[in-house]
Amino acid sequence: MIIWGNIELEKQEEVGDFHCPACNCERKFELLRTRDCFHLFFIPLGQGELLQERIRCQSCRRPYPVTLLAWSAPTLASPEEAARPASEFLLSNFGNVVALTDSAAEEIRRRHLEGDFETSLAVRIEPVSRADKEIAITFDTPIADGRDWLGAAHGLPLVVDRRSAPDLVGTTIDFRDGQFYRD
């Protein structure tokens, strides 16, 4: 007789600090992931499909959605705030990765005005591809959660994804022939 099928397994995958709403103070949390795994004789085969992800306070044991962790990420009230660090946490996400030419800064300001975007938005700079020198420019909310580099050039707040920053460090963004390019 062969015993096989699916089984739901919950595993603690990470721990960290957060503000627990029930305890009303800083506590340790554990990240729990529940997966639907195929098993043979109750031995899981493979990682399985992710069914649920949640955090649980290690003190009061209450479960919370993972999104609770994002609530503690600092946000920036204005683009000017992106140009100056407000805390040590912001300082670790701040620096000059890229520079803008006068023509690039002028075109960004024109697009911002023409698009009637909120003044609180920053300029997100992303490479279109690693091989190509073309750059995509969009407008985004600056959030100091560690995933983005925040900076400024020509008085414009800039946002660069940390994964893209190594490819862009030290480059100058220019606008010519209707496109943004890096040098």
Ordered list of secondary-structure elements with their pairings:
Elements: E1 4-20, E2 25-40, E3 43-57, E4 63-65, H1 79-82, H2 88-91, E5 98-100, H3 102-114, E6 122-127, E7 134-140, E8 148-153, E9 156-161, H4 165-168, E10 171-176, E11 179-182
Parallel strand pairs: 5-10, 6-9
Antiparallel strand pairs: 1-2, 2-3, 3-4, 6-7, 7-11, 8-9, 10-11
Would you write up a description of this structure?
The protein is mainly beta and 183 residues long. Helices cover 14% and strands 49% of the residues. A hairpin with a 5-residue loop joins strand 3 (43-57) and strand 4. The chain is elongated and about 70 Å long.
Total individual domains: 2
Task: Give the CA-based shape.
Answer: elongated
Supply the helix-strand structural class.
mainly beta
**Termini separation:** 67 Å
Number of strands: 11
CATH topology category name of the largest domain: Hypothetical Protein Aq_1857, Chain: A
Mean pLDDT over the residues? 79
Order of helices and strands: EEEEHHEHEEEEHEE
Strand content: over 45%
As an assembly, this protein is single chain
Largest sheet: 7 strands, mixed
What is the CATH domain class of the largest domain? Mainly Beta
**What is the H level of CATH, i.e. the homologous superfamily of the largest domain?**
HesB-like domain
From the alpha-carbon coordinates, what is the Rg to the nearest angstrom?
22 Å
Uncertain residue segments: 82-94
From the 3D coordinates, which CATH architecture of the largest domain would you assign?
Answer: Sandwich
User: Helical residue percent?
Assistant: 10-25%
Protein name: Zinc-ribbon 15 domain-containing protein
